[in-house]
Design brief:
- The structure is a single chain.
- With about 400 residues, the chain is an alpha/beta fold.
- It has one domain: Metal-dependent hydrolases (TIM Barrel, Alpha-Beta Barrel), CATH 3.20.20.
- It has 15 helices and eleven strands.
- It has a five-stranded parallel beta sheet with strand order 7-8-9-10-11. A three-stranded parallel beta sheet has the order 1-5-6.
- Helix 3 links the parallel strand 5 and strand 6.
- Helix 4 runs parallel beside helix 5 and helix 8 runs parallel beside helix 10.
- The longest helix is centred in the middle third of the chain and has 21 residues.
- The chain is globular.
- The N terminus is likely disordered.
């Protein structure tokens, strides 16, 4: 039975707190796109094929998109250690893709809701940009959003997938942002953290200004999940002399720090100054590094920027406090010792289920240790209050 190793749920450990998990993943079913696509596009939609005993996703017939998903929870409920993914669909636990099975896991854990991110198209839809046919790209995006809106509805809003967007086309970007919010009632969007790596303008460019205005008006959180644009850090950072296990571990540890790049650029841009209602989330990158980055940004602001930012109304630390949240999961030192420095209102909790670094099956024990010495008010903010306010979740 899945979660059998967890003797007590989180709401038993922290009574009165309805935990919101701010980063989990949806392993897309094999027919998610083909079952919804028009006949003219069906054969070109993302679909799964078995290649050398591995289930792999392909789009537009032969363009590879990657493995079945990054689930490491076996059918038995055990977590596969040392694996990036289980190679075949039938090996992964139903909770990775089936909403009823996922809700059973949440009930056992004592988790009220999960914010969900995709797999197949990338954590920010970046893999679809490689398609030459823009109509096919847009169809892949829209079908995914339609499917996850159904998932949200079927689960009474306990599973809250974040929308993906056609970032390569400014008009389509605005139109789909309106649609996923007003028609599909999705609660947030996920973007690549470094669009410039995908051949698009960086976020300070005027290209993005109508999008900032719209998301600010809609109150829509903008999520930057690690690895959402480019995972070269993951594959290129380790020394070649390292074995495969160490290469994966080193790449993963450095990938967590990739979001610091987009956060620092936001703090030095005037985006948050001009759009005080914008809300950005750094997902799956931890929180322990944030006090250092804020201190470094404040120092360099005074030392190196005498003229360019004179028109800014806020300093870097103030911009962070106004418009940025960050998630923790496996960390101990950061959440234990740095909450005050980061700001209790800016921290979110995640499990990363069912990915390789997920807390399963020890989220209860971990949180008991990490949050043992903080007040009930801070626990409530970190485990549910901040997320409920940010994503519009009714507790």
């Amino acid at each position: 039975m899945i979660m059998a190793a967890t003797a007590a749920s989180l709401n038993e450990v922290f009574p009165g707190i309805e935990v919101i998990d701010c980063d989990a993943h949806y392993t897309e079913p094999a027919d998610l796109w083909t079952s919804r696509a028009p006949a003219s596009l069906r054969s070109r939609m993302p679909q799964m094929r078995r290649v050398d005993d591995r289930d792999m996703w392909f789009v537009d017939n032969d363009i590879p998109l990657g493995p079945v998903g990054f689930s490491v929870i076996r059918k038995s409920g055990e977590k596969a250690i040392g694996e990036l993914f289980l190679p075949q669909w039938e090996l992964i636990h139903e909770a990775s893709y089936d909403p009823s099975a996922r809700l059973e896991v949440l009930n056992r854990l004592g988790i009220r809701a999960q914010i969900l991110y995709p797999n197949v198209g990338g954590f920010g839809s970046s893999r679809f940009i490689q398609l030459e046919d823009e109509s096919l790209r847009l169809a892949c995006i829209q079908i995914y959003n339609d499917a996850v809106a159904e998932l949200q509805s079927e689960t009474d809003g306990r599973l809250l997938p974040q929308a993906v967007l056609p970032i390569w086309d400014s008009k389509a970007l605005l139109k789909e942002t309106e649609r996923v919010t007003r028609e599909l009632s999705l609660k947030g969007v996920t973007l690549p953290d470094t669009p410039e790596r995908l051949g698009l303008p960086d976020f300070a460019d005027a290209y993005w200004e109508p999008f900032w205005e719209l998301t600010s008006e809609l109150g829509l959180p903008i999520n930057f999940h690690i690895g959402s644009a480019d995972t070269t850090t993951f594959t290129s950072a380790p020394w070649k002399s390292m074995g495969p296990e160490r290469r994966i571990a080193i790449g993963a540890a450095l990938l967590y720090m990739d979001n610091a790049r987009v956060i620092v650029n936001l703090l030095y841009s005037d985006i948050i100054d001009r759009h005080p209602n914008l809300k950005f989330v750094s997902v799956e990158s931890g929180v322990g590094w944030i006090p250092f980055i804020l201190e470094a940004c404040e120092y360099q602001w005074d030392e190196m920027v005498p003229t360019e930012c004179k028109h800014h109304t806020l300093r870097p630390r103030e911009k962070f406090q106004q418009g940025i949240h960050a998630c923790f999961w496996f960390e101990e030192e950061g959440p234990k010792r740095l909450i005050e420095s980061i700001g209790a209102d800016k921290i979110l909790f995640e499990t990363d289920f069912p990915h390789p670094t997920c807390l399963y099956p020890h989220s209860r024990e971990h949180l008991q240790n990490v949050l043992a010495d903080v007040s009930q008010d801070i626990r409530r903010k970190v485990l549910c209050g901040n997320a409920a306010k940010l994503y519009g979740i009714d507790l």
